[in-house]
Amino acid sequence: MKNAVGVLGGVGPLATVYFMEMIIEMTDASKDQEHIDMLVSNHATIPDRTGFILGESSESPMDAMVKDAQMLETAGCSFVVIPCNTAHYFFEDIRNSVQIPVLNIIEETIDYAKKQGSQRKIPREIKKLGILATEGTISSGTYSFYGKPAGVECVAPDPGFQKKVNHMIYDQIKAGYPVSREAIMEVIDHMRGKGCDAVIMGCTELSVIYRDLKLRETCEDVIDSLWVLARSTVLKSGKQLRD
Q1: What phi and psi, each to the nearest 5 degrees, are found at residue 202?
Q2: DSSP states of 67-91 as a string?
Q3: Could you tell me if 106 and 70 are in contact, meaning their C-beta atoms sit under 8 angstroms apart?
Q4: Which of 79, 126, 133, 136 would give a disulfide with 202, using CB separation of 3.0 to 4.6 Å?
Q5: Is the confidence at residue 93, as pLDDT, over 80?
Q6: 213 near 178, Cβ under 8 Å?
Q7: What is the residue range of the signal peptide feature (predicted)?
């Protein structure tokens, strides 16, 4: 299959499936043949990213992700996407392992947020982003690493609120339990109180909350990183976005 999008997935599997659904729903297509070809590695047994980053596990997920990226390249994919924020701790190693482009969910999200601010689709210019993500993403500083060159300060929740985010991701979403609107709005309001111009759903599991609670329709200052990556994937594939 030539010119397909390579999805380095399984990190986690639910987010991967939702990402594929997003691409299908976003693509302006009137029949099957007008949709985007995708080759998906739904590699759910890749070692835990956060555990390795925090030093709680000695089993690195990098080798598995590099091999999956190379497999997708060999299969004929034109570029690779990784629907997992935490996995971008290993982004440079993955990108350097292949000759085809690899989209960066964090760079795409920060760029999208800045454009939304400059166009006043978000009430004010984006200078400070609140990041809701796994402990691994927060501790690794990947959002700050990519935000600094863009002139954007990326801040994490206070420790007590980060524990609430961790609970939502690992004990509720990944375990198949729902998260209440009140619970996520408490954290979002906390980030607003810290002076954030927008709040990023910086974990692809949190994207499920974003969808189920219709946050895109009700919270204009909340941006879902997985939604942004799906949008960028459609455009990079040369397709038009559905209205």
Answers
A1: -95, 25
A2: HHHHHHHHTTEEEEE---SGGGGGH
A3: no
A4: 133
A5: yes
A6: no
A7: none
Environment class of residue 205 by beta-carbon count within 10 Å: exposed (0-12), middle (13-18) or buried (19+)? buried
Q: Could you read off the pLDDT of 215-240 as tens digits, one per residue?
A: 999 999 999 999 999 999 999 999 99
165 within 8 A of 173, measured Cβ to Cβ = no
Amino acid at 25: E
Give 7-62 as a 3 state SS string: EEECCCHHHHHHHHHHHHHHECCCCHHHCCCEEEEECCCCCCHHHHHCCCCCCCCH
> 129: Cβ–Cβ under 8 A, 6 or more apart, which residues?
110, 113, 143, 147, 152, 153, 154, 155, 196, 197, 198, 199, 200
DSSP-based three-state secondary structure for 95: helix
Chain centre distance of CA 167 = 18
DSSP H or E segment with residue 200: strand 198-201
Say how far apart CA 11 and CA 28 lie, in whole Å.
27
Distance, in Å, from the CA atom of 187 to the CA atom of 88, rounded to the nearest integer, reads 23
Instruction: Cite the active site residues.
Output: 84, 203
Omega cis (within 30) before 12: yes
| Percent of the chain at pLDDT exceeding 70 | 99
Angle between helices 159-166 and 181-193 (to 10 degrees): 150
HSE-CB at 237 with a 13 A cutoff on CA atoms is: 29
- pTM, 2 dp: 0.94
Strand order in the sheet with 153-155: 153-155, 128-132, 198-201, 222-224
